């Protein structure tokens, strides 16, 4: 059942779940292959306005999957720490369900600039040059968040 955490006592607020997404740098994007197999791949991402953006080459397995079925899941784990003496772990996580879409035009340019601001804020001018150079051979996708759940222990 999407969006339901079995151990409700570990549920975080939506605000904290969005903070975890905002603070994270890598997540696992899960898609469904046309042959029915799941495919999870780590991606560098940024979160803005209830959407998760990621960049990639304009072709590949995950994009073939998204084109066939744009329903996706995205997972981020923050602050993991094994607690050996307690036989458990401390962590925060967020799971998102949504639909993935390729972005283009000014939305793509703005998203690429947001990526530069997020990961290379001290190199904005150089980032603008890189965007001009790499934009034709870079795809930007967004996941429109439908369901978001956060969990912490």
The global form is globular
Q: Give the overall average pLDDT.
A: 88
Main sheet, how many strands, which sense, barrel? 6 strands, antiparallel, barrel
What class, by secondary structure content? alpha+beta
CATH topology: Pnp Oxidase, Chain A
- Quick one: CATH class? Mainly Beta
| Level-2 CATH architecture | Roll
**Fraction of residues in H or I helices:** 25-40%
CA-atom Rg in angstroms: 17 Å
Q: Write the CATH homologous superfamily.
A: Electron Transport, Fmn-binding Protein, Chain A
Strand order of the largest sheet: 1-2-3-6-5-4
What is the total domain count?
1
What is the helix/strand order? HEEEHEEHHE
Q: How many helices?
A: 4
Instruction: Give the N-terminus to C-terminus distance in angstroms.
Output: 21 Å
Low-pLDDT parts are: none
Number of strands: 6
Note the topology.
Elements: H1 14-23, E1 26-32, E2 38-48, E3 51-56, H2 61-68, E4 71-83, E5 88-103, H3 105-119, H4 124-134, E6 139-152
Antiparallel strand pairs: 1-2, 1-4, 2-3, 3-6, 4-5, 5-6
What does this structure look like?
- This protein is an alpha+beta fold and 153 residues long.
- It has a single domain, classed as Pnp Oxidase, Chain A, CATH 2.30.110.
- Helix content is 29%, strand content 44%.
- The chain is built from four helices and six strands.
- It has a six-stranded antiparallel barrel with strand order 1-2-3-6-5-4.
- α3 packs across α4.
- The two termini are 21 Å apart.
């Amino acid at each position: 059942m999407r969006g339901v955490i079995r151990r409700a006592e570990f549920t975080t607020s939506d605000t904290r779940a969005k903070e975890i997404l905002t603070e994270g740098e890598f997540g696992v994007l899960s898609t469904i292959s046309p042959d029915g197999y799941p495919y999870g791949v780590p991606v560098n991402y940024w979160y803005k306005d209830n959407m998760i953006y990621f960049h990639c080459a304009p072709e590949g397995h995950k994009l073939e999957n998204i084109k066939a079925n744009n329903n996706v899941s995205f997972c981020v784990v923050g602050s993991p720490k094994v607690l050996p003496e307690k036989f458990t772990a401390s962590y925060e996580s967020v799971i998102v369900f949504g639909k993935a879409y390729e972005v283009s035009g000014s939305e793509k340019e703005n998203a690429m600039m947001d990526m530069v601001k997020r990961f290379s804020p001290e190199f904005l001018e150089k980032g603008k040059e890189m965007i001009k150079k790499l934009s034709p051979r870079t795809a930007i996708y967004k996941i429109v968040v439908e369901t978001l759940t956060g969990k912490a222990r």
